[in-house]
Design goal:
Distance between the termini: 69 Å
Shape: globular
Number of helices: 0
Radius of gyration: 23 Å
Number of strands: 31
CATH architecture of the largest domain: Sandwich
Helix content: under 10%
Structural class: mainly beta
CATH class of the largest domain: Mainly Beta
Amino acid sequence: MIPNIVLSQTFVQNFNSSTSLSDYFNSTPITNQFDKIDATGDGVIVSVANNNLSFTRATTNTGLFSRVTDFNPSPTGITIKFDLTISGNTTAQTSAAIFYIGSGFTSTSTVPTNSRCFARFSINFTATNGTFQIKDISNTGSNTSSDLSGTQTIRWILNNTGASANYTSPTGSTESLENDKADIWANTIKLFNDVSVETTTEILTDFKFLYSQGTGTITFDNFEIGFSNDGALPVQLKSFTAQQLNGNVILNWSTVTEINNSGFEIEKLVGKRWSKIGFISGKGTSNIEQNYSFRDMRVLNGRYEYRLKQIDLDGKYEYTKSVQVQVGKSRTRLTLNPNPFNPTTRISYYIPEKTEIEIKFYDLLGKEVAIIQNKELKEEGEYEVTFNSTTNNLTSGVYFCILKTSQDIITEKIVLMK
């Protein structure tokens, strides 16, 4: 039987749990964190806002992210999927940014050597704002896509299984991929078919992105990195949903087929870590649709995120993509970090509905001393803005940051210590 390369998520990140960049990387990362998200200087601004990750490059320096903590076990087939948007580019630039997969990478701006790269591809900027190309740079010759624009869902499928492998395409068709070859898709268009990789002897444990040429903004969202090690996925998931019912969360999911399925652990994101909250037994082996349900009664008002850990009878496992649900009505939130601060602090806030907002600083006498945002119309979501006290010539002391919306007024005390 031809093996399958299946999107078995080992890494899923949609940048919607926080507006603080540091929450998304760690030198010893948990499952859905990068090792590093950074810039080498002020020429690149890195930010998380509106549920996405953006790199804005003006003149010099490099923006980067990496996952160099090895995937374990080492995958032999891998799918890397993410939403990509380019904006602010007005000058053509070949290979403005490059993606690498291989092993032995560092989490710095150092470019991986070709001998350590299993494969790589790049983003070309065109001279038209918002328009770009994908370029296969694992091979010599002309391997550049046609012009792309808007948000494109990029899928990079790589096969190192030792034989031809099948995978399900974005259109739902079954595609065949030769050993030591790669396919690249943009939305439902296959840009490259069975292109050769860089170094066939390399393994697929590390992933890296470097943005070091050209000017403009590169925005990412909805990262999913999944792998296959030994052939067919034992469980084919049809759907997985979460909904609020009478103050509880109801999870429903269904499978099309199951092979040696022991069952599903249900996990909930608590803080920054996933915790097991239940287990539902599987059907073993089945070729008909099976339906499952789980009720989480330990919830208060707020937003919750869940995923399933599907476990085989032999102990192997994989994770599904996570789902989110809102219980009750969200409340406006405001946080300041660091506090005390000098000279800058991050103002993070959440608004539960479209509204006009203003954010201002006041001293102990109630005098307005700084305007952060003034009567700006905002959609529902998480936001973050950096406040620099030197801009307003503030002295050491106690201040109040006040966020006003059409429904709420929230006040947070903050201390400036010079």
